[in-house]
Amino acid sequence: MTVMLRHGLGEDKVADPVLAGVNKRVVACRLCPRLTKYLDAAKITWPDHRCTPVPGWGDARPRLVIVGLAPGLHGANRTGRMFTFDSSGMWLYGMLHEVGLASRPVSERPGDGLKLRGVYITAAARCAPPGNKPLPIELATCRPYLKAELAHLTGAVVILALGRIAHESVLRSLDLKPGDYPFRHGAEFTVPDGRILLDSYHPSRQNTNTGLLTRPMWRAIFKRARTLMSRARKQP
Q1: 109 DSSP 8-state letter
Q2: Phi (first) and psi of residue 71, to 5 degrees
């Protein structure tokens, strides 16, 4: 399938002033010298890429928050929307649509009409890093954005961490010790504030092409998330 990208024709507006404020700070951020230099150089090489930090997006009152690793150089870094225009995004939005949490299975760009239902998508790092590997100091520098989002999205029942780095970033954002909550695909932890941290392998090509993450495994994670969301909704 060929998707024509039309940059500048739309932005994902979040109907919440706190989240909108976080996103404004994210897009303007230039705190990490290595990443800033990398994106500035990438913009020269690929002028059709946005090459700015990528904000979170989705339902402003979510019951599920999905946390990824970082924007892909030719995916979210190109389009300006998390998990968009790469293979990981095809896995994510395809499954969100399958379980009824997205209006359609393909994400093209901000302003394309895609709607998420009860889902907010964000990441541990907001800039595309060289080799898709953010440094620990860069993750720490970026963490206040995730911390602010999680502190505000208290209505979320489930936080789905895609990969070990996202898992650890969520825990540190909640002022918890990752060693007390070991990462494992399919693991569930009820954190002190009552929310459930659900773990999955990241849907990167490295994991999906090698069979570390299969379609049935991926589908089971989202069915479990839906079950947890439904159970919490029925509680008094």
Answers
A1: S
A2: -60, 140
CATH number of the CATH domain containing 173: 3.40.470.10
The total number of structural domains in the chain stands at 1
Q: Does residue 180 fall inside a structural domain? A: yes
Query: Maximum CA pair distance of the chain?
Result: 55
Residue 188 CB contacts under 8 Å (≥ 6 apart), including other chains: 196, 197, 198, 199, 224, 228
In a domain, 187, yes or no: yes
pLDDT over threshold 90, residue 236: no
Phi (first) and psi of residue 34, to 5 degrees = -65, -45
Q: Is residue 202 part of a domain?
A: yes
Owning domain of residue 161: 17-234
Tens of pLDDT, residue by residue over 2-52, are: 333 344 446 798 889 999 999 999 999 999 999 999 999 999 999 999 999
- Measuring CA to CA, how many Å separate 6 from each of 48, 51, 61, 110? 9, 15, 28, 9
